[in-house]
Every structure is written in structure tokens, then in C-alpha cells.
Amino acid sequence: MITVYVPMTWKRERLYILSVILGELLGLDYQVVESAKGTDESAWVIELQGQDGQFVLPDVFFAIAKEQWLGAASLPVQPLKQWHVLDDLPEANVLAPTIPIIYGHESERAGFFQCKQGDIHLKLDIFGSAFFMVSRYEEAVLPDRDSYDRFPATASIAYKAGFLDRPIIDEYVEILWAAMKRVWPGLKRKTLQFEQKVSCDVDNPSRYALNGFSNMVKNVTIDVVKRGELRCGVIGPRAWLAGGTSLDPSDPYNTFEWIMDVYDKNRIQGAFYFIAGWTDSTKVQHYDIGMPAIRQLLRRIHDRGHEIGLHPSHSTYKVPNLLEAEAARLRGVCAEEGICQDNWGGRMHWLRWETPTTLYGWEQAGMAYDSTLGYADMAGFRCGTCHEYPAFDPVKRQRLKLRIRPLIAMESSVIVGQYMGLGVNNNSYEYFCKLKNACRLVNGKYTLLWHNSKLRTKAEKSMFQAVLEA
Ligand SMILES: [Zn+2]
């Protein structure tokens, strides 16, 4: 049994982050004792029952935040210091020899790592930094928003300090583990498995059928005249005539069967998240969840063993009651179609999110997980981790039942011009793979969003397949 001695402040936050890191990620048996222990500074001290040696980490984030909770002065001081971690801990499972320090105290003489008489002193505040990243604390502090009212990657410490492409908290956990093994070589941790979590936000299930005659004419004209796809002149009207009863197999957005074939081939249980309401009348409603064609699609996905989830509409991110109502509608339609699932989850439309408001929509709706937390403008590790974890509200200072499944990459973030703009080519393939390999290194989850409407061309399809197979 491990004992962690912690300072007597921020008890809920400390218990929470210890449960995530020591409990969920490392799977250690531990107890927490509130008291200062054997050190002249505020510190987290870890001991192992019946064994010599101590492991000591500084308490930096919670000490700073004491006077300045959610104040700008509690944010990390930039530029962040860098630690050549592999000089001190060559066995640590990290992505690069050097790692940025979000919160820590560098000792002038000994750097970030000291080994004294069998004790290890690390000058990196792993628990405080982890709390800061996974609770999305900075989003509750900083006012920056893009034109869709989203906290942008460019405002984040991860982007500013150049570590958005690293699961930095997972790397910190690997450092913690390597250092603890130095003190107690016999210690065992839980084995985690790398996994791909691939999902599709169903924004627009049909290019021609479900959204009115004029929309069909407009899209047929674009496809025939601008794209030179003459066959769309036949497919469009045919799909529209079938109306809401079924999706035309040749509709360019009806790629669902193909996607499920790819999921099956890669042994992935994929997820499809559906919009079940319309909360902004200025935006086009592409379908209604109750249409026969959508019901048929829901049944088909369920019959093929894939997951159905919720894609809460435009304005729900700020209004928990609206999100709850849409979840009820989705569950209702699924129940009418004989679709039962043990767990329900999903992702916000347009990745719209407000910390902590949006958490409560999911929580109120009794959903098991949310998978929104990646940035639209840049793929990477918004939460600093690729593992799932329980949500925590840094404003009301409470833990929730909801679990966060961080989104690592949305196809558009990497490909389209308004975001990273790498295009459909080898550069974007390499970036998807770079993120995937980072998840693989820490045995995490590579959570990828790829829309059904972004698999029209051979090049898009090949890239999606290649990324899953990489
Ligand atoms: Zn969407």
C-alpha cells in the first residue's frame, strides 16, 4: 500500500487527481493522509508501506492557486522551463529527451531531479500540472474565443509552449512511474492497452435527400458543373424522390456502410453521433432524427454492432436543459426502433464547449461520456492526455460522474484550409500517424473523428483507411 501525504488545502482537487493518476492510470493501491511530511516546503510525499525511501514532489499549482483560484496569476509562467528528462531518467517512456515543465521548481544546483540517500526529489509538480490540464482550468480563466465561441488552440498553454502534439500528462505519469521504480523496483502497475476510438459525427447524412428541393437542385448543380460529376445529375433527383424513406446508396454522403466495413476490417467498434434537435434557427437543419431514413440508418448501425451516440446541436453547449432534451429524444427514437445500449455518449456539434457549463448538460442527461475535447483549429492533446478520465468542474470545485474521452484529431482540423490546412496528402497522413504513435507510446486511446461527408473521394477514403491501418 502506498501512502500519499498531501498539504491540507484543496482536498477535493487533490483526491480527484490522485484517483486519476495513481488509481486509474497506474492502478496502485494507495491511501491519502493530509499532513506535511519530512520536508521544509509544501510537497506531495509518497511512501510505500514496509519499504525504505520516499518520493517527493513540489506542491506548486495548488500553492499558487490558493490566493488566485481561476485568476490569471495562477496560470503557468511562460516561457516554460525545459527538463532534459532522459539525462536523469533514461528509462522514462517519453516522446522526446526534453519535456516542458508546466508547474515546477528547478533547483539551481540539481535541476529537476535529485536522488538523496535512497529518496527521490522531483522538482516537477506532476499532480498539480495534471489537474490544471485535465480540468481545463485555463479555459475557465482566459476569455479567448473564436467566431464559434470556442476556446481556440492558439490561446492554450499547450500551443504556446509547443506541446499540443504531446500527451504531456501521460508522459508525466511515465516519468512518475520511472522515478518510483527507482525507489521501489518491485512496484507493479496496471497494464493499459492501446486502442483506436473512431467516430463519425452525422452532421449531414445525405447530400440531396433530406433538406428540401432547392437544396437538392443547388447541390446537383455544384456537383455536375463545378465538380464535373455528371452522374450526380441522376443520383440527386433519385435520392430526393426517395425522400425521407431511405438513403440512396450512391448519395456521396451516404458512406455509412463503407465506414462500417472499414471499422470491421480493423476490428474497431465505431460510433455514430446523431443530431436530435435544432437550437439555432439561423442554421440549416439537415435532417430530423425521427425521419424513416434516419431510423433505418440507426437500426442498421445497431445491427452491425456499432455504437449510436448524441451530437448535441448548435446552442446546447451553453444550456444543459437543451442538451438533456436532445438526449431524451435520441433515446426515445432508439427505443422505438428496439435499439438498446448500456452506455450513451457523444460529442458536441462544431466542438462547441464551455467549461464548465457543457459538462452539466451531459451529466444531467445521464450520459456516460463526452468526446468533444480536442481543438477544431489544431489536432492534438487539448487535455494533455489520451486516456479517458472522470470530469471535474474547476469552478464549482466538484467531481462529476461524466467521463471525458479526449478527441485527438478531427479530419478537418488537419486537412482543411481554415485550420491546419495540410490537405489530403502525405503531410496530413504523417500528422495523423504522429498523434496516433504518441497515443500508442502511452498505451492510450487514439480518438479520431471522421465525418461521413468527408469520404467522398478515393484520396479521402484511402487516407482514412491508411490512418486506421498505420
Ligand atoms: Zn457536427
Descriptive tags:
470 residues, alpha/beta, 6-stranded mixed beta sheet, 5-stranded parallel beta sheet, 16 helices, 17 strands, binds zinc ion
Verbal overview:
The protein is built from 16 helices and 17 strands. Strand 7 (113-116) and strand 8 form a beta hairpin. The radius of gyration is 24 Å and the shape is elongated. By secondary structure, it is α/β, with parallel strands linked by helices. The chain has helices at 11-25, 61-68, 85-88, 126-134, 137-141, 157-160, 168-183, 213-226, 232-242, 256-265, 292-303, 320-336, 357-364, 411-415, 426-441, 458-469; strands at 2-6, 30-34, 43-48, 54-58, 81-84, 98-101, 113-116, 119-122, 195-202, 271-274, 307-310, 345-346, 369-370, 389-393, 398-404, 409-410, 445-449. Helix 1 (11-25) crosses helix 4 (126-134), helix 8 (213-226) packs antiparallel against helix 9 (232-242) and helix 12 packs parallel to helix 13 (357-364). 48% of the residues are buried. The structure holds zinc ion. Zinc ion binds at residues 201, 203, 311, 349-350.
